[in-house]
Design goal:
Number of helices: 7
Shape: elongated
Number of domains: 2
Strand content: under 5%
Length: about 240
């Protein structure tokens, strides 16, 4: 850990903001590389998307906010820091509010993946979809990998978070922007919970997810995800 910085010496009981921040590169202290229009536009869009995905729990802080003694960046931003904060709130550097921020709901995508597998089912201790996932009551890497693989089978690309957001947007449950980070935040999780709550488990006759839409990937969300993935595995092997 670094010594306490001036300005804001502590952040959630830590004294090194670099360990707590997601940084966006800008012109630093009036260097020879001024900020570009593309940086300003992308910062506004990504900042807006992260705010929506994390439920407003993020603080958009300038480098100079944290360390006003040694830093004054971002510098040479037209209109200053207040203009950049306003652009992040809008989701665009331009004055116009982007139309794509709140798209209209679309018809839900079909639950069945298009691809079929020729591998035998079931077959011992093989990875999903050639073996069922266990209902462990908590999220794990096997569950995330299976969901990432399934969404790829039906044509969604990008990081795990991007694939999930794109699928939920197609399903009409996610209305935010497609983020450029790999972490699945509360907004994406709420969309996923809503999608699961709209689908019926053919093995039980009940909805896959019957809990609260709270954006937390707790035991009930984890088990509902496993049940849905195992049903999809049956479909892949022609048993659904």
């Amino acid at each position: 850990m670094r010594p306490r910085w001036p300005g804001f010496p502590w952040w959630h009981d830590r004294d090194d903001v670099n360990r707590e921040a997601i940084a966006f590169s800008f012109d630093a202290n009036s260097s020879k590389y001024p900020v570009t229009a593309a940086q300003l536009e992308s910062a506004a869009k990504v900042g807006k998307a992260m705010t929506e995905d994390w439920g407003g729990n993020l603080v958009h802080m300038m480098h100079g906010d944290w360390n006003p003694t040694d830093r004054s960046d971002p510098t040479r931003v037209p209109g200053g820091w207040s203009a950049l904060r306003a652009a992040i709130k809008r989701g665009s550097w331009s004055a116009a509010r982007p139309a794509a921020t709140k798209p209209a709901p679309v018809k839900p995508a079909a639950s069945k993946p298009a691809a079929k597998s020729s591998k035998p089912w079931p077959s011992g201790r093989r990875p999903w979809p050639d073996a069922y996932l266990s209902r462990a009551g908590k999220r794990n890497k096997h569950q995330d990998k299976a969901l990432h693989d399934l969404l790829g089978r039906v044509g969604y690309t990008g990081t795990f978070a991007q694939r999930l957001q794109k699928w939920c947007k197609k399903d009409g449950t996610y209305r935010g922007l497609i983020t450029h980070i790999s972490v699945v935040g509360p907004s994406s999780t709420r969309a996923w919970q809503t999608s699961l709550s709209r689908r019926t488990n053919p093995k039980t006759g009940r909805r896959f997810y019957t809990g609260r839409i709270d954006g937390k990937r707790g035991p009930q969300t984890a088990n509902a995800t496993v049940d849905w993935l195992n049903w999809q595995a049956d479909i892949i092997h022609g048993k659904g």
